[in-house]
């Protein structure tokens, strides 16, 4: 008998499961091992007081503390003696002392003194507590959980060095798999639907204008290229994903009111898997007059589990309000604890999501095959070149630009953004400006 389609819920049952290669992050899993080849944020400095802090990352539970010398330690939770948690440990001048029988560990896991055993006990040579290297940077504590021999240099990104810009660390916890939080940033069509049509305009009104979309690879990931016609201007935004889990996003309230070239991002953030079904986004929110000329940003609302735009947590709004005007949190969490790709019906608008998953899978498999994980490139510059930006040009054509003109314009901007990565920021800006001078409103057949 032919399967009934209308009212066919009875037939639509499935045993399909999530894709573990992309979504499982524990020790020994392909994605978990790949993620362990990069520095990952584990906490904000502001969370760290005089007591040890229990942290989760990549399915591991660890204890982070700052000893009396001011040095940070990140140790396995369970004491190597008989397993008591070091979250109850006594922070010492040097390292931490387990509460139960006084075993004393240095920040690198060295057993300094095995409690009441003799000071020269062979235990100190034989036993080591699991420990990971940490690096504190601009109010965020990063850790490296991979094999020591593969530890990369700690990367600093060009957008951290923006002039006249304040940076504020923040974190947001989302109870679902990391990939659905991460791939949201390569799903630009949701900005139009979720953040403008479904819920009313949640960000800048210009972001609710229909866009021409394109995508391009970067050395370590990809950008999506969004081009919109706003008033008399063309606005091209490139939103960046740097694998494995870094994202940069442009100004939250961008209205494309003024001509600008290579305006950088409002957020640099990592979507960190705490385990397979919990994600903590940690990063910096950037504030400047250039990014926010109308003063709509609110740094006072940015911090632990809080940010200054709607729809990122469950706690900020009542359930009925979240139903009426859902945001990213509601959309992502409701895709299931771990989204099941085999049940999706992907469309042309999912090009970015599909591309991101493909790049991620290739990278995971390369590391699983023993290749070194590719690391960000400084091109000999002060910081790692990145590719998130907004450019707004005056459109001087007699008629409104059609889709193909907008696509071509977006591609030219993207090529200039990608092709200038070896140059300092001012020269990159000049290159992008010259593309605009050549292209916007000009006759494409003569351009
Ligand atoms: S369990 Fe930690 S010292 Fe005994
Ligand atoms: Fe969103």
Give me a quick take on this structure.
It is built from ten helices and 19 strands. With 447 residues, it is of the alpha+beta class. The chain folds into two domains: 40-143, Rieske [2Fe-2S] iron-sulphur domain (Rieske Iron-sulfur Protein), CATH 2.102.10.10; 158-439, Naphthalene 1,2-dioxygenase Alpha Subunit, Chain A, domain 1 (Alpha-Beta Complex), CATH 3.90.380.
What does this entry look like structurally?
By secondary structure, the protein is of the alpha+beta class. It folds into two domains: 40-143, Rieske [2Fe-2S] iron-sulphur domain (Rieske Iron-sulfur Protein); 158-439, Naphthalene 1,2-dioxygenase Alpha Subunit, Chain A, domain 1 (Alpha-Beta Complex), CATH 3.90.380.10. Helices cover 21% and strands 25% of the residues. The strands form four sheets. Strands 11, 12, 13, 14, 15, 16, 17, 18 and 19 form a nine-stranded antiparallel beta sheet that branches. The structure holds FE2/S2 (inorganic) cluster (FES) and fe (ii) ion. Residues 184, 190, 195, 328 line the site of fe (ii) ion.
Q: Count helical runs.
A: 10
Question: What's the story with the biggest beta sheet?
Answer: 9 strands, antiparallel
Distinct compounds present: FE2/S2 (inorganic) cluster, fe (ii) ion
Indicate how many domains the architecture comprises: 2
- Gyration radius from CA atoms, angstroms: 24 Å
Average pLDDT metric: 95
Q: Total strand count, please?
A: 19
The CATH architecture classification of the largest domain is Alpha-Beta Complex
Percent range for β-strand residues:
15-25%
Structural class: alpha+beta
Percent helix, as a range, is 10-25%
The CATH top-level class label of the largest domain: Alpha Beta
């Amino acid at each position: 008998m032919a399967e009934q389609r209308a009212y066919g819920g009875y037939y639509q049952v499935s045993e399909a499961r999530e894709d573990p290669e992309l979504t499982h992050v524990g020790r020994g899993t392909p994605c978990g091992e790949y993620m362990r080849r990069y520095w990952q944020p584990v906490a904000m400095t502001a969370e760290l007081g005089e007591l040890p802090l229990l942290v989760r990352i990549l399915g591991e539970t660890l204890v982070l503390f700052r000893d009396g010398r001011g040095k940070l330690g990140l140790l396995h939770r369970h004491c190597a003696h008989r397993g008591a948690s070091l979250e109850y440990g006594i922070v010492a001048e040097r390292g931490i002392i387990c509460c139960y029988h006084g075993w004393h560990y240095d920040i690198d896991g060295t057993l300094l003194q095995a409690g009441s055993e003799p000071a020269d006990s062979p235990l100190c040579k034989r036993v080591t507590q699991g420990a990971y290297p940490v690096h504190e940077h601009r109010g965020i504590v990063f850790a490296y959980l991979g094999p020591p021999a593969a530890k990369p240099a700690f990367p600093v990104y060009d957008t951290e060095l923006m002039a006249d810009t304040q940076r504020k660390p923040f974190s947001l916890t989302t109870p679902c798999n990391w990939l659905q939080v991460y791939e949201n940033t390569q799903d630009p069509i949701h900005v139009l639907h979720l953040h403008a049509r479904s819920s009313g305009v949640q960000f800048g009104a210009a972001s609710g204008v229909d866009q021409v979309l394109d995508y391009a690879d970067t050395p370590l990931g990809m950008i999506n290229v969004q081009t919109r016609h706003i008033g008399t201007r063309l606005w091209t935004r490139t939103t960046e994903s740097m694998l494995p889990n870094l994202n940069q996003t442009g100004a939250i309230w961008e209205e494309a009111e003024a001509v600008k070239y290579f305006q950088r991002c409002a957020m640099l953030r990592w979507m960190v898997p705490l385990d397979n079904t919990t994600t903590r986004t940690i990063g910096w929110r950037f504030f400047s007059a250039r990014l926010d000329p109308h003063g709509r940003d609110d740094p006072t609302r940015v911090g632990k589990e809080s940010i200054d735009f709607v729809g990122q947590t469950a706690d900020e709004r009542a359930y009925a309000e979240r139903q009426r005007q859902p945001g990213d949190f509601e959309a992502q969490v409701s895709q299931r604890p771990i989204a099941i790709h085999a049940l999706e019906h992907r469309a042309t608008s999912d090009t970015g999501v599909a591309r991101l998953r493909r790049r991620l899978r290739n990278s995971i498999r390369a590391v699983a095959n023993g290749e070194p994980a590719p690391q960000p490139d400084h091109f000999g510059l002060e910081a790692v070149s990145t590719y998130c930006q907004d450019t707004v040009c005056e459109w001087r054509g007699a008629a409104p630009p059609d889709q193909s003109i907008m696509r071509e314009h977006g591609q030219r901007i993207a090529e200039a953004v990608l092709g200038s990565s070896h140059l300092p920021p001012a020269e990159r800006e000049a290159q992008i400006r010259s593309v605009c001078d050549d292209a916007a409103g000009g006759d494409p057949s003569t351009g």
